[in-house]
Design goal:
Low-confidence stretches: 1-35, 41-45
Largest sheet: 25 strands, mixed
CATH superfamily: TonB-dependent receptor, beta-barrel domain
Radius of gyration: 26 Å
CATH topology: Maltoporin, Chain A
Helix content: under 10%
Strand content: over 45%
CATH class: Mainly Beta
Mean pLDDT: 89
Length: 773
């Protein structure tokens, strides 16, 4: 059959997406040098609209296996231009937030993550707040099931909500057309030392199995995965030296480590905490049925469960050598009070399920359409913590139970593609309508009996927060091939947002909040010009409106290690983003330069109140970011010097991101936007001397960052800081025979110690064995 070679950027190279029948989906794609607007078609599904008006990068399954020590699905993004996932350890289920060009790792709601078009981004909240987390649900995808990952930068497609201000990430997973099976096992080891007094050996095991096939109109895919992981300590209890009182009161202790906090105030580190042991299971079933040669029905069921235990270690020793965990202490002639929960324990238990259904036409004639729906359900989501001090807490006793059972979100959507002049016509019109709905329900109670296993005491309410939000939308965009050299995309998105049922409660008070509603239009525009046979220029402009999440509006909590002040009157943040790009086909690779600019009004931020453990969410009047991104990748670049199988890639990003106006905090005006570094870079090289060997060296760099709006956290290389980093990774993969392969890798070879509030992993060794049918 005829194949339409249309480029989809994969690893920076122009890969074609083919118009295929169900029988030839597995055919290897050919390379194409055609540049311009990216067009997405073909048998493998994607959430992306057919016409992509801006920068898109991607990576294929083969590239992930060759050059990345991938232990979690988010690792596929490790060397993407301008992207960073705040992954603290293998299996990080509650803090792995995606950062993009002009959005830091505190802004999870400013990017969109899908798996086969099913929403994984968690818009119940933003970042880390009110005792819970809002990272994308990466655990619903495993590295072994990834077919490819597509990343679209910026809010330039009308198909996506205002959360796309940073990027849109879509994981496309396996759907085979013949029998295939895979089994893999991996081990990782992190010998960590000298991190604010902590040291240890932290390891993880991972095993997976998958099988899939096609028989007539039916096809299926089943994937199972188990992870058993130990993290390094992530928090460090402390007291400020200025909080001490001169005198002899308190138990004299030794072992406290003197140092400076992020604002250069002297403090004592008292120990290490939040060291997780997490055991996670994942199961995925995908079914598809071809009703006709051009109409497919599909269903996806994802299941994820997690059991995690957090423990703590005190450095403090009393006069007779006993470990001290709480109460009045005395250090060098000053007395301090250590809270009973300073060295906290925790027990997390979660079972989440994901459902997705779709009915999709792919005739590729005048009109195609798709109907889809998805559901993400917190069937069980509980956290238990003691309210008494160690060592007694390790044996049981009083505590609290935080319960989020029933929280979740659901989506329904209808979209179509109309080609009024046929497949080769001048216009391709994409359009759609849908609704996204979110429910947050967090209840915290005292526990009857043992905090580790006792039931919640309904008469001992500590706090309760909850609410709902819903967005209804319509969108359309027209891709117009003006001439052989010119192409444009014009789009418009309308969103109608409501927030309702908001409430907060404690044992002594209860508050309810009025229903809110707003509607906004977001126009989009793009233009591409084929300057020369191998050179394309692009310009894109888009408006995005990011509505406040339920957690930001209603998620207040008090007490415990973290507290959060909500704001039911928050305004939506409104951004205008633009970019200019030049792409040059180099024959064996692609070079791209992109100038980008973003202006955001009423930016939504959660900030730690200085000197406390309480965060407050606020609107920042205006944030402005201007930057330049360079990206390059090429294959077989060593041919000219007789070196076969050498592939290279890399990126460099410069961003000037500043707070322009902020009446609520004038000291922040003129300061850097939190967690957005001025410089960041990636580079990788893969050498394949034979068909069996693939050797990769890769590096990542990020410059200076700040966590506070006023940039007062000048000491970045400590707990709660956001430091620069430079890490080097190695990977060697060997194809033992047709079915069996092995890999060995080292992440952070140079053992760089760096922070993003919590410490990142030190040097980590990985080894894996894989069998493929």
């Amino acid at each position: 059959m005829k194949k339409f070679l249309l480029p989809l950027m994969a690893g920076g190279i122009a890969w074609p997406c083919l118009a295929q029948s169900a029988q030839d989906i597995s055919e290897a794609p050919e390379r194409s040098r055609e540049l311009g607007m990216v067009t997405v078609t073909g048998g493998q599904p994607s959430s992306l609209p057919t016409q992509i008006p801006t920068t898109i990068e991607g990576i294929t399954r083969e590239e992930i296996e060759t050059r990345i020590n991938a232990t979690d699905s988010e690792d596929a993004l490790k060397y993407m231009p301008s992207l960073l996932v705040r992954k603290r350890y293998i299996g990080d289920y509650n803090h792995a937030i995606l950062s993009t060009r002009a959005s830091g790792t505190g802004n999870s709601a400013r990017s969109v993550v899908y798996a086969d078009g099913i929403l994984l981004s968690n818009y119940l909240g933003n970042g880390i707040a009110n005792g819970t987390n809002y990272a994308p649900r990466w655990g619903l995808v495993t590295p072994e099931e990834i077919e490819r990952v597509d990343v679209m930068y910026g809010p330039f497609s009308a198909a996506y909500p205002g959360n796309s201000a940073g990027a849109v990430v879509d994981y496309v997973t396996r759907m085979p057309d013949k029998l295939e099976a895979h089994v893999a096992a991996g081990y990782s080891s992190q010998p960590s030392s000298n991190v604010l007094g902590s040291s240890g050996h932290y390891s993880s095991w991972n095993s997976s199995a998958s099988i899939g096939s096609r028989s007539g109109p039916w096809s299926f895919w089943i994937n199972l995965n188990h992870t058993d992981s130990h993290s390094q300590p992530l928090t460090f209890p402390f007291v400020l030296q200025s909080a001490g009182s001169a005198g002899s009161a308190g138990t004299p202790v030794t072992g406290a480590i003197a140092g400076l906090n992020t604002t250069n105030q002297p403090w004592y580190i008292l120990g290490a905490g939040t060291q997780y042991h997490t055991q996670q299971d994942h199961a995925k079933i995908k079914l598809a049925y071809d009703i006709t040669p051009t109409l497919r029905a599909s269903y996806t069921l994802g299941w994820w469960q997690n059991s995690a235990k957090g423990r703590a270690e005190s450095y403090l020793k009393g006069p007779d050598g006993q470990t001290v965990y709480s109460g009045p202490i005395n250090i060098d002639g000053k007395s301090y009070m250590v809270s009973p929960t300073a060295f906290g324990l925790s027990r997390d238990s979660q079972t989440h399920t994901m459902h997705g259904v779709s009915l999709k036409s792919h005739a590729r004639e005048t009109f195609d359409w798709e109907l889809s729906a998805s559901l993400y359900d917190y069937g069980k989501d509980q956290q238990r913590v003691p309210t008494i001090a160690l060592p007694a807490a390790a044996q049981g006793g009083a505590g609290t139970l935080q319960d989020q059972n029933g929280t979740g979100w659901n989506t329904v959507a209808a979209k179509g593609t109309w080609r009024p002049d046929g497949l080769q016509g001048a216009h391709i019109v994409d359009f759609g309508a849908g609704r996204d709905a979110y429910k947050l329900d967090i209840r915290k109670y005292g526990v009857l009996g043992d905090w580790q296993s006792g039931p919640a005491n309904p008469q001992a309410l500590v706090s309760q927060v909850g609410g709902r939000s819903e967005t209804r939308y319509l969108w359309a965009q027209d891709s117009w091939k003006i001439s052989s050299r010119w192409k444009s995309v014009l789009g418009l998105r309308w969103e109608d947002w409501t927030a309702s049922d908001g409430h907060t409660a404690t044992a002594s008070s209860q508050l309810g909040y009025d229903k809110r509603s707003e509607s906004h239009f977001s126009p989009k525009a793009a233009l591409a010009y084929q300057l020369a046979r191998n050179t394309t220029l692009k310009a894109s402009l888009g408006r995005s409106v990011r509505f406040p999440t339920v957690g930001e509006l209603y998620g207040a909590t008090s007490g415990g290690a973290l507290s959060f002040i909500n704001n039911p009157n928050l305004k939506p943040e409104r951004s205008w983003t633009s970019e200019l790009s030049a792409e040059q086909d180099l024959g064996n690779g692609l070079l791209r330069a992109t100038l980008f600019h973003e202006s955001t009004r009423d930016a939504l931020y959660s900030q730690l109140i200085p000197g406390s453990t309480t965060s407050a969410v606020q609107n920042v009047d205006k944030v402005r970011t201007t930057g330049l991104e360079l990206s390059y990748s090429a294959q077989s670049v060593g041919r000219s010097i007789g070196l076969r199988g050498l592939d290279l890639g890399g990126s460099l990003t410069w961003a000037d991101s500043q707070i322009v106006a902020n009446a609520a905090n004038p000291a922040s005006v003129g300061k850097w936007q939190p967690r957005v570094p001025r410089w960041r870079a990636t580079a990788w090289a893969t050498y394949q001397p034979t068909d069996r060997w693939a050797l990769t060296v890769a590096a990542r760099y990020s410059g200076r960052q700040y966590s506070n709006l006023d940039n007062s956290d000048v000491n970045a290389s400590t707990y709660m800081g956001a430091s620069k980093y430079f890490t080097v990774d190695l990977r060697a993969r060997y194809q033992i025979d047709k079915q069996l392969s092995a890999a060995f890798g080292i992440d952070n070879l140079n053992n760089y110690q760096y922070w993003n509030f919590h410490p990142y992993p030190q040097r980590t060794y990985t080894a894996s064995l894989r069998w493929d049918l």
